[in-house]
Amino acid sequence: MVDALLDIAGLRAGYESTTVLRDIDLRVEEGQLSVVIGPNGHGKTTLLRAISGLVTSSAGRITFAGQDITRMRPEAISARGLVHIPQGDALFPDMTVLENLTLGAFLRRGGRAERSQQLAVVYDIFPRLAERSSQRARTLSGGERRMLALGRGLMADARMLMIDEPSLGLAPVLVDEVYRQIARIAESGMTILLVEENFSRVRDLADRLTLIENGEVRASGTVQEVLADPAVAATYLGIES
């Protein structure tokens, strides 16, 4: 079996006395776009927060690039190239687009020339951000703010992006545009772990699919393998055989 860039085994995590995740196993190989899907409130966001160190795990192990990161602090995990883009925007609203992007490179290795090169990459993927580089983040549209959040994640020295529900709260036409950019990021070779509630948005993008229900893995595999279970396809993905 190929060594996974991210390897999660037996993960249990939650908040105070409430356990949300129970014995989660999940692997993401380098270059994959892996999608976690499932009903709202069943642990998808908690999973990303546990991986990035924002939620403390009570059991299990999380390995990234061959190193155990289970008990690491969030900033140490991010510095190793595992970058978490949370739900919503989490931007600095009174800073400009360029200032927000520059902050994304705060932990990036290398000098100014390398940061400028990466900024050019981000502007190539998101040309609208280049057009609005001097505009304050709070004046952007919802879709533009989501693009800025993704762009800021790319400004880090990332080996893998974790993206939490990029379609949340956006009009369908904006969701289409955001997902076109995510597809471009994936085509560049970036490893992505994506949380999404709407299966139709990720059906043609995902290399692997993990379905979480009540904090447990209900199904996992390629899209075709998951769809091969008629009960899973009908109940969770809205597809009748």
From TrEMBL:
Residue ranges of every copy of the ABC transporter domain listed in the record: 6-239
PANTHER family in the cross-refs: HIGH-AFFINITY BRANCHED-CHAIN AMINO ACID TRANSPORT ATP-BINDING PROTEIN LIVF
Alphabetized CDD domains for the sequence: ABC_TM1139_LivF_branched (cd03224)
Gene Ontology molecular function: any one: ATP binding
Gene Ontology biological-process annotations: L-amino acid transport
Keywords of the record: Amino-acid transport, ATP-binding, Nucleotide-binding, Transport
PROSITE patterns assigned to the protein according to its UniProt record, in alphabetical order: ABC_TRANSPORTER_1, ABC_TRANSPORTER_2
Organism of provenance: Mycolicibacterium agri (Mycobacterium agri)
Protein's name in the database: ABC transporter ATP-binding protein
Family in the record: Belongs to the ABC transporter superfamily.
